[in-house]
Amino acid sequence: MSGLKSLAYSVAAGVSKLLPGLRAPINRFAIGRLVKVTRARPHPWSTLSDHVSWRGMTDRSYSARHLPAQDTPDLPEISRVGNLFRVPDLEEQRLCPKSTCLFPAFAQYLTDGFIRTMISNDFATGETIEDRRRNTSNHEIDLCPLYGRTIEQVRALRTLSEHPDERGKLKSEVIEGEEWPLKLFQAGGNAFNPDFTDSEGQPLLDTPLGISHTTSEMRETLFAVGGDRANAAPQVSMLNVLFLREHNRLAGIISASNPGWNDDRVFDAARACTVVMFIKIVVEEYINHINSTPLMLVADPSAAWNAKWNKPNWITAEFSLLYRWHSLIPERMTWAGESLPGGALRLNNTVLTLGGLTQAFVDISGNRATELGLHNTANFLIEVEELAVNQARENRIAPFVEYQSAFGFDRAKSWADINPDPITQAQLADLYGTVDRLEFYTGLFCQPRTKDGPLPPLLQTMVAVDAFSQALTNPLLSESVWGDPKVQRATFTYEGLEAIGNTRTLADILKRNSTPIGDRFVGMTRQGWKRGQE
């Protein structure tokens, strides 16, 4: 961010503190400025074809594009690009000054709900490049990792009971005083839980990605939830557990206060409240953690009501790539005092269920994230970096400098404009020759991290654009629902609105749904971190 822009945000932050009555218009102005740095939806192009077409602008099973497809000939071998992400021999991963590992965990959980490029568990079944240019996304922030993407999945996960104590709830079980989702597999881990199969024994829920790499013991730990990525690691699963508990807590309160409501009405109200809480956390904890300015933004839906950028959501191919923040994940993580290799945590919820939900949040908040950037990715994730490079090439994503221009930055003219380190400049020159050939995915992580933030500048800007333009446009936050007091009360209930009002962070929800936190820390921003000390 330029010095002038940074000064402007500092002044805005000071004014909003001195004059509280100006906070709302300053917030709307700041959000508008962030979103309007680039063209608003609808995007002319998609991964369907290279030209603009009716199907390309309406078939959302393909990803949209910020920029048209572009070929860059003679790109380096993917393994050579992958080496840019490796930690050099005899060195350790750099630590991020600002972030705990709750930050990348939440980022993964958030994006697993709508960045759903088409990936199967059996890559050898004939997938084509065209298949991999498609997606299975609903294109909304709708908590589908919890609720499911389809009507059939949602119904399979619900109790569907008219009993006053069960109305509107999701299926769960209580083990040693804590509420958990039901298990996806039966004891032994070799057969699906019949609660989640059809009359022919076929699963109604998405099979977890990577299931072929699990043991029967690992499968026994997996939860029956809405997403095929929601069991990816315990730090992701714990977020699903948290929101399941909050949904069921709200359903119980709403059912008791509205005895005439049936199961569907209670479920819909609890779901609406939980989704809005989630969006509020996206803005007020997650985006404010990413934010490198002193101006703290709030989730004010009115910022979108009359905005020109308030258009139907459609996830882009670029957005599905820019969220691959693998270098934030340390090679080893500490759970309950034990140092464990990160690769061993995949598709295994054992540390979560043994320690309990509160301890999981405390543990993940006690692990420092590593720094986003080149030469800092854990060994077990290098292959995933290479797959991302390949995905960008299959989608013919334009070079990095084209996106600098599209998002309001000066176009780099030399390697020094990308990164000040001479060694990094030499490595990039050796791979790509000239700066205008630098690949989008690689370039995102070549830039140094923004001061007081966890992300490099172009990446930070692109995240802000898509986050606000796709979160605040949620139908539940529309002027005709959230902005109409009568409709708002009927949709969310008094009790639900009170809970939403009392929610700004994940810790707020955790305190309502788990064992006491006490003075233990839970948060995305490291305890004791202060702006300007880097």
Summed up, what is this model?
The strands form four sheets. This protein has a two-stranded antiparallel ribbon. Strands 3-8 form a two-stranded antiparallel ribbon. A two-stranded antiparallel ribbon has the order 4-5. The chain contains 21 helices and eight strands.
Write the layout of secondary structure elements.
Elements: H1 3-18, H2 23-35, E1 45-46, E2 64-65, H3 78-83, E3 95-100, H4 102-112, H5 129-132, H6 144-147, H7 151-157, E4 173-175, E5 178-180, H8 216-219, H9 234-257, H10 263-290, H11 302-305, H12 317-322, E6 332-335, E7 338-341, H13 350-355, H14 357-366, E8 368-370, H15 382-394, H16 400-406, H17 422-432, H18 440-446, H19 457-471, H20 485-501, H21 506-513
Antiparallel strand pairs: 1-2, 3-8, 4-5, 6-7
Helix pairs in contact: 4-9, 9-10, 9-14, 9-20, 9-21, 10-19, 10-20
